[in-house]
Design brief:
93 residues, mainly alpha, 71% helix
Length: 93
């Protein structure tokens, strides 16, 4: 008899360690480089922190969604990603 068990996602502690070290190094490097950058680039460290938080939130959401649900919308996500890439090429050239 198979019981209905809930899957638990366990993150590798080494992965968490390396990502934390990479986070600290990247934010510290960007922050220390702000002294030689123009005034318009003074908020890069804050933006870097924001993107790390957005990435952690995205990983959390993805781990809560079932794999079947993600596989059903793969083509939609693929098309949306390519449309965003096209917008990037068109708008920044």
């Amino acid at each position: 008899m198979v019981k209905n068990m809930k899957k638990k996602y366990i993150l590798d502690p080494y992965l968490i360690l390396f990502l934390t070290v990479f986070f600290i190094i990247s934010v510290a490097t960007i922050y220390s480089a702000q002294t030689i950058l123009k005034d318009e680039y003074q908020s890069l460290a804050i933006k870097q922190i924001f993107w790390y938080i957005a990435g952690i939130f995205t990983i959390y959401i993805i781990t809560k969604i079932k794999n079947d649900s993600i596989l059903k919308i793969t083509w939609i996500l693929y098309i949306i990603g390519n449309v965003f890439l096209l917008f990037t090429i068109i708008l920044w050239n």
